[in-house]
Amino acid sequence: METAPEQGTRLTIRWDLLELVETAELGRHLLSRDTIPRGTSLFTEAPLLVVRPIEELPEDKQLLFEQTAELLDCTTAPLVDLYAYITASEEVRHQVLQEFCTFGDVRVQYAEEDIPNIFLVAERVAAWFAQNMPECQDMNLGELLHAQGVFALNSHNLGERPGSCLYVTGSKLSHACIRPNAVYHFKPAEGLGEHRALVDIPAQTALTSDYMGFLGVCSRRTAVPTQATKLFQCRCEACSGADRMRALPCPSCVPRDLSTGLLVDSQLVDEANLWKSHPFITPDSGGDEPTRSVIWRCNTCEAGFTNQEVHAECRRSDTWQSLFLWERRFELIVHQLLELHPSVDSEGKLHPRLRGLMQRIEDFALVRPLALVLHLDIFAARPSENRAAP
């Protein structure tokens, strides 16, 4: 079915398949009217506002924002974001304030000592702009803080290009950690962002994407990152249940449960400082050599283990099942990439993002079955009927 562009915009959307609804829980969001097949292009959209990277700003602004970032103890990103807002047209600024979610009443929702740093930075940046930028003379502090919240919670990447952007329609998808039903990518040749159905989407289902990016599918729970960067506590099964992405605890230096003899789950050690307090087994740098007996090594005590020893420990607990789930998540990531990109470049080489994924597998602090690499090879070679054209 052909799609028609919206009047006055560069938006092409399947309104025959989608509708915009509003609920108390999710606010304004897109809902499927009917079953949507996997691979369907849901909509393409031009950004409402593009934030150029600091390197593309005039030299005086680059120097000013770099010095101010040091003064305000932040990166230059929120300064560049707000500069893009205050220099936009009045019509665009109005849409930014009306079409996007922003910070709630953070100082009521959080105790003073628990206020997320992203909000504290936004307050400092908004106050500095109000006092120092002549373009802000007709803007109050509340408007500037509102705009900061819009960028913090709704920005999209521009693919491989530096900078970021805001999409009016693209901001109407809710978050899903493990199995989002839609995926976003930027089409540089057209200057448009596209959202595609990642799986078959049943009728009357909210459209979702992973706010942590497509690699978020393979990471450990995202409750802490979403709280810190998006100001909501994710309560999906992956974030509220046992962390299936945890690494294998070291049999040499991690305590065992006296009642079962099993290694203490990493989540029971210190969830807030997990990566600092808990030793993990990771692949040894020489682990791919077939003659090498020790191929796994603890990050903390440096004890070495053979494949056989590690696999035996996996079978003692539920870790083995975790590996298969982890493997499935990588399948989902590769599937997302192959929906959006050809598996090989013009020279017949494996797409660089797939090569990056394979390297990420090697670096991940989790026992890695060889089946993961096999799956990547299989998916790289498998044709996709619904794959987007490069």
UniProtKB/TrEMBL annotation:
<dbReference type="InterPro" id="IPR053010">
    <property type="entry name" value="SET_SmydA-8"/>
</dbReference>
<protein>
    <recommendedName>
        <fullName>SET domain-containing protein</fullName>
    </recommendedName>
</protein>
<dbReference type="InterPro" id="IPR046341">
    <property type="entry name" value="SET_dom_sf"/>
</dbReference>
